[in-house]
Design a protein that fits this description.
This protein has 328 residues and is an alpha/beta fold. It contains 9 helices and 8 strands. An 8-stranded parallel sheet has the order 2-1-3-8-7-4-5-6, sandwiched between helices. It is globular. Bound molecules: manganese (II) ion (MN) (2 copies). The site of one manganese (II) ion (MN) has 6 residues, from loops.
Length: 328
């Protein structure tokens, strides 16, 4: 049973009361508030799992991501040392559980996930998602970008704007942002992709995205610009319109996040990733996700620890953004 404290806030269970290894694991030890709970109307930010990897083209396993991320997120604490933000004081955050999925039917899953997020959106709840493979971002955007196309800060080793696989498969974790742009959910001129690297299938692979106006910061440009330069560019690209943050763990070097389907060496460090997300403070953020955590490739749980920490970093700038919007 979920309860609000005297200040009308959901707060994580503190490790001073219930040891971190005990109890049922929810994201960051927040209360579990399913959509059917009366307290759902009090939720401002919903942490949601999408346990699904049906868009994965090679090494599957991200369907197990949300459960392991919840487990490792019992290590989370409340206050961000760098920014001083306590996201749980800024907004009512809760674990809304996992979306319905159908592990053997891709299009049915896309509909189920979209329906779940449409209900959140209708209740004015801002989503922060744990994937799942990167295709899950598409149904989330279908639900929350109906009224207005979003800008996006996208951290990834891959652009995920390929057209189709195996002749005619439109929906894979390599295609979500092509579809999102075609469907008018994502504004390519307000989209920046950071950390792109790895070998290509063809030398024109990035042409479509660049023709649409996406700003691609490949890993060489990333190191030339440095964290501050990348952030300056990101702020210019997305401006003050509604912006989504999508964080594929393969943005990081596989020494930090080996538990992922498509690792690419030569990636960013976890500290750089934290600085980058902290630097998004002040943008008009409307949602975010951390995707492509595949526990079978990292039974140690370190990739899930990284993912939950990045979720916490995104939660800090997201709740700060909501607070600013509400104050206007
Ligand atoms: Mn991706
Ligand atoms: Mn990727």
């Amino acid at each position: 049973m979920s309860t609000l404290n005297d200040a009308g806030r959901f707060l994580p269970v503190t490790g001073m009361v219930l040891p971190r290894f005990a109890g049922i694991a929810t994201f960051m030890r927040l209360p579990y508030v399913p959509l059917t709970d009366a307290l759902i109307d009090e939720v401002e930010v919903g942490l949601v799992g999408i346990p699904w990897d049906g868009g994965t083209t090679n090494r599957a396993g991200a369907r197990h991501g949300p459960r392991q991320i919840r487990d490792l997120s019992t290590l989370a604490r409340n206050i961000n040392r760098a920014s001083g933000i306590n996201p749980f004081e800024l907004c009512n955050c809760a674990d809304l559980g996992d979306t319905p999925v159908n592990p053997v039917d891709l299009e049915d899953t896309l509909r189920r996930v979209e329906d779940f997020y449409a209900e959140l959106h209708q209740k004015n709840i801002v989503p922060l998602t744990a994937g799942g493979d990167h295709l899950v971002t598409l149904p989330v955007m279908r639900a929350i970008a109906r009224d207005q196309p979003l800008g996006m800060v996208h951290f990834d080793a891959h652009t995920d704007t390929w057209d189709r696989y195996f002749g005619n498969s439109l929906y894979t974790h390599g295609t979500p942002f092509r579809r999102a742009i075609e469907e008018g959910l994502l504004d390519p001129r307000r989209t920046i992709q950071i950390g792109i690297r790895g070998a290509l299938y063809g030398d024109s692979e990035n042409d479509w995205g660049m023709e649409q106006g996406i700003r691609i910061v490949d890993i060489d440009a990333y190191h030339r610009l440095g964290v501050e330069g990348v952030l300056k560019l990101a702020r210019e690209v997305v401006g003050d319109g509604p912006t989504y943050v999508s964080f594929d763990v393969d943005f990081l070097d596989p020494v930090y996040a080996p538990g992922t389907g498509t690792p690419e060496i030569g990636g960013a460090t976890t500290y750089e990733a934290q600085q980058l997300v902290r630097g998004l403070r002040g943008l008009n953020l409307v949602g975010g996700d951390v995707v492509e955590v595949s526990p079978p490739f990292d039974p140690s749980g370190n990739t899930a620890l990284v993912a939950m920490t990045m979720m916490f970093e995104i939660l800090c700038v997201l709740t700060d953004s909501i607070k600013r919007r509400n104050a206007r």
